[in-house]
UniProtKB/TrEMBL annotation:
<dbReference type="InterPro" id="IPR011701">
    <property type="entry name" value="MFS"/>
</dbReference>
<feature type="transmembrane region" description="Helical">
    <location>
        <begin position="419"/>
        <end position="439"/>
    </location>
</feature>
<feature type="transmembrane region" description="Helical">
    <location>
        <begin position="130"/>
        <end position="149"/>
    </location>
</feature>
<feature type="transmembrane region" description="Helical">
    <location>
        <begin position="285"/>
        <end position="303"/>
    </location>
</feature>
<dbReference type="GO" id="GO:0015293">
    <property type="term" value="F:symporter activity"/>
</dbReference>
<dbReference type="InterPro" id="IPR050382">
    <property type="entry name" value="MFS_Na/Anion_cotransporter"/>
</dbReference>
<keyword id="KW-0813">Transport</keyword>
<keyword id="KW-1133">Transmembrane helix</keyword>
<feature type="transmembrane region" description="Helical">
    <location>
        <begin position="361"/>
        <end position="380"/>
    </location>
</feature>
<feature type="transmembrane region" description="Helical">
    <location>
        <begin position="155"/>
        <end position="178"/>
    </location>
</feature>
<dbReference type="GO" id="GO:0006820">
    <property type="term" value="P:monoatomic anion transport"/>
</dbReference>
<feature type="transmembrane region" description="Helical">
    <location>
        <begin position="386"/>
        <end position="407"/>
    </location>
</feature>
<feature type="domain" description="Major facilitator superfamily (MFS) profile">
    <location>
        <begin position="21"/>
        <end position="473"/>
    </location>
</feature>
<dbReference type="InterPro" id="IPR036259">
    <property type="entry name" value="MFS_trans_sf"/>
</dbReference>
<dbReference type="InterPro" id="IPR020846">
    <property type="entry name" value="MFS_dom"/>
</dbReference>
<dbReference type="Pfam" id="PF07690">
    <property type="entry name" value="MFS_1"/>
</dbReference>
<feature type="transmembrane region" description="Helical">
    <location>
        <begin position="190"/>
        <end position="216"/>
    </location>
</feature>
Length: 473
């Protein structure tokens, strides 16, 4: 599966990376837009008569009087006036902190259910249809989200769960594609560039949504990413092919190179008929990857779903500044992921590090580095610049995991790369989906002390779970 060569000179693998990268950007645009939009959509009344008068008030352009409103029950789902001036967002939905966390986590309730199915479907039928249809359905559900949010909490939750189910198949399907197209030594670089493009999606989406919300209202924070997603699906349908052999314009030299490198892997190039479940489920390396992924994704989900709420509730930033500052750590994760992958490729190619050592080293850098930073962030106070710098440093380290456990399943069983990725993703996000719910429960009043607990617990998890990394294959 690769896109048409541009100008007849761009290698098919490079064009493939560009198109897949843009797809990951598009899928993250419809995934993370809610993280910023929910700040404008939802009001969470304090549970303990806490106002925000003492929380970094100098950062906030204007605090609406609604912060004094109290007493929403767990069953509340009402529309209230925010007291803002004409031309600004006129309504907010009342939710408790737990309800808000549940909405942010609902995506992952669906996400964990379809990974194995998606990976297996891509192995048997190809990535093109699986990926394209799932992206299209995600766009349709994004268009539906504003209506669902205004209608009922249950409707809103159901839409997010369905979106998670459709997106749950995407990365396992992409993994199956990589096993068909990308030679083993190129995979860390390819995976880092394509998968870490999720950070570019976040970097684009958060500031864009902030500007859109400020200009025309939070509904368009869903409509605009949905339109981008539909446009990408059209491009995908026109340009993609399931295997190098199907590509009509790939050069013979590149085709022979890919075929030769892939056939050096045992069994690569044959369509898998049966899955050796017993061997898979008894493999220590698989469970080491799954546990590492669970811890790393918990930390990432905390940032991608809750960072705008932290910037709003503790630092008191305006919606525009919030969106820009929240996006910076993800830009650094993208830069870090690509830097670490180039270093890893060089060390492996020159024989300085074995694959075995390389996978463990980069996994440890990503998890421990980010864990140390999160332990510090909660104690920084109202110094917004230092907060953003530390988070950026942590996510730069986090990018190393794409060259660590993130590629290890392709080393382990390339014929079943999609299935293994689906299994690992389901296990990892089955745990990581707790992040927004747990943080919502830990931070009902959005105080610095409550956020310290949230950050410290995540830090401890990342640092302790790195002890499972020696079991990577």
């Amino acid at each position: 599966m690769a896109p048409t060569n541009l100008c007849g000179c761009l290698p098919a693998r490079v064009a493939l990376a560009l198109l897949c990268s843009s797809g990951v950007i598009a899928l993250y645009m419809v995934r993370v837009n809610l993280s910023v939009a929910i700040v404008a959509m939802v009001h969470v009344p304090s549970t303990k008569n806490v106002t925000r008068d003492k929380l970094c008030i100098n950062n906030r352009e204007e605090l609406p009087s609604m912060d004094m409103i109290q007493g929403a029950s767990n069953s509340s789902f009402e529309i209230m006036s925010s007291g803002l001036q004409e031309g600004q967002i006129p309504e907010k939905i009342i939710m408790t902190s737990t309800e808000k966390g549940s909405i942010l986590g609902a995506f992952f309730y669906g996400y964990v259910t379809t990974g194995i199915i998606g990976g297996r479907m891509a192995e048997l039928y190809g990535t093109k249809q699986v990926f394209g249809i799932s992206m299209l359905m995600g766009a349709i559900l994004t268009f539906l989200t504003p209506l669902a949010a205004k209608t009922h909490y249950a409707f809103f939750t159901a839409v997010r769960i369905l979106m998670g189910m459709f997106q749950g198949v995407l990365f396992p399907a992409m993994h199956s594609l990589i096993s068909r197209w990308i030679p083993p030594l190129e995979r860390p670089r390819f995976i880092s560039f394509v998968y870490i493009s999720n950070c570019v999606g976040v970097v684009i989406t958060l500031p864009l949504c902030g500007v859109i919300i400020d200009a025309v209202g939070w509904e368009w924070a869903f409509y605009a990413p949905g339109i981008v997603s539909v446009m990408w699906v059209v491009m995908w349908a026109l340009l993609m092919y399931d295997t190098p052999q199907q590509h009509p314009r790939i050069s013979q030299a590149e085709l022979m190179y890919i075929t030769d490198k892939l056939t050096q892997q045992s069994g690569r190039g044959t369509k898998p008929a049966r899955i050796p479940w017993k061997k898979i489920m008894s493999c220590k390396g698989l469970w080491a990857m799954a546990i590492a992924h669970a811890g790393n994704m918990y930390g990432l989900n905390l940032l991608s779903t809750q960072l705008p709420s932290f910037m709003d509730g503790v630092l008191g930033l305006s919606i525009k500044k919030n969106a820009i500052f929240s996006s910076i750590p993800f830009l650094c994760q993208f830069i870090g992921g690509n830097c670490w992958s180039w270093v890893g490729d060089m060390l492996n190619t020159k024989g300085i590090l074995s694959i075995y050592v390389s996978r463990r080293l980069f996994s440890a850098i990503g998890m421990v580095g980010n864990g140390i930073v999160l332990a510090i962030v909660g104690f920084v106070g109202c110094n917004e610049i230092l907060v953003v710098f530390l988070l950026a440093l942590g996510t730069f380290c986090m990018g190393a995991t794409a060259s660590g456990y993130g590629v290890n399943d392709l080393d382990l069983a390339p014929n079943f790369a999609g299935t293994l990725k689906g299994l690992i993703n389901s296990f990892g996000f089955g745990f990581a989906m707790l992040a927004p719910v747990v943080v919502g429960a830990l931070t009902p009043d959005q105080t610095p002390q409550q956020w310290q607990v949230a950050f410290l617990s995540t830090s401890g998890l990342l640092i302790l779970w790195r002890h499972y990394l020696p079991d990577l294959c």
